[in-house]
Amino acid sequence: MADPNTVQSSRALLADMQVWARSLGFQQLGVSDIDLSAAEEQLQQWLAKGFHGEMEFMERHGSLRSHPEQLVPGTIRVITARMDYWPETAADAWQVMGDSDLGFVSRYALGRDYHKVMRKRLLRLSQRIEEAVGAMGYRVFTDSAPVLEKALAQKSGLGWIGKHTNVLNRDNGSYFFLGEIYTDLPLPLTEPVTEHCGSCTACIDICPTQAIVAPYELDARRCISYLTIELRGSIPVEFRPMMGNRIYGCDDCQLVCPWNKFAQMTTESAYLPREGLDAPKLVDLFSWTEAEFLQRLEGSPIRRIGYECWLRNIAIALGNAETSDEVLSALNARLEYHSELIREHVLWALEQHC
């Protein structure tokens, strides 16, 4: 195990790590201990209410999620890092959502899959630390294992968890990705910050499906991000009209957050829009073959929902679009599609235009 010898040297190492992190494209680095007992209790209460829906993986791993030392034996610290993703060149989000001929894709998913980008950078950071201190035990994560990343980000001072349950930073808003390095390196901790949501309820009020059932409490079963990304079956009829033209994720709660006026634009070319996904025409997307879907979205996080769910989501958006010959033609072209799931959503969409 690597072991900085003094408090002074460990703090110097932390300062160096923060410099190295910035050189690798991260905007902030923190260090947390591994006591997640408070977050564990909140997670258990959330699971008991069934708010995780069909995300059974949230309960499958038992205590691994809240006990880093069980997931990676020897872990005593978690290095946390964040990376901005908001692309300045993307079409205005509200304008896209206001045009029913277009499809809205959450701004984090317009470019390359952040899992791959962040993981490579975290590995490089870990290797740089090893060069400085010698061999150490570590493992990197980016939303890729049972990790309570928001709780760790909060404990390490990257921000506080807002009423919409996203991590908020007073100087940078919430448009950033999180990543972690579990390590046996006895680093000094970085201090948590106080929360600053105050009496604001903008995120709660704007949610199209009222998924934020109370401050700091999200019922994922109602959340458009869950419905369009995590849910694999039929989307409940009651939520379909509320989804509008959101075909992959939903940014409403972040778009209205006052703290995001301080959000920084990404400098990472990997996160810039690809395939016109910042303002795509729904009928064009709906015409893609499965081969086109796989080819055009190679390296994109969208690919993980699969072609069938992609068509399902677009069918709902077309059902919510203004009636036109183009929309009706696109829907009718899929009416005999081999997937029962797609046929069901296409039929619903056509009924909206009767």
TrEMBL record:
SUPFAM superfamilies: 4Fe-4S ferredoxins (SSF54862). The keyword Protein transport does not apply. Keywords: 4Fe-4S, Cobalamin, Cobalt, Cytoplasm, Iron, Iron-sulfur, Metal-binding, Oxidoreductase, Queuosine biosynthesis, tRNA processing. PROSITE patterns: 4FE4S_FER_1, 4FE4S_FER_2. GO terms for molecular function: 4 iron, 4 sulfur cluster binding; cobalamin binding; epoxyqueuosine reductase activity; metal ion binding. Residues 186-217 form the 4Fe-4S ferredoxin-type domain. InterPro entries: 4Fe4S_Fe-S-bd, 4Fe4S_Fe_S_CS, QueG, QueG_DUF1730. One of its GO terms (biological process) is tRNA queuosine(34) biosynthetic process. It is found in: Cytoplasm. [4Fe-4S] cluster 2 binds at C207, C223, C250, C253. Cob(II)alamin binds at R65, D143, V167, L178, S225, C250, D251. Catalyzes the conversion of epoxyqueuosine (oQ) to queuosine (Q), which is a hypermodified base found in the wobble positions of tRNA(Asp), tRNA(Asn), tRNA(His) and tRNA(Tyr). Monomer. Belongs to the QueG family. This is Epoxyqueuosine reductase. It comes from Methylophaga muralis. The gene is queG.
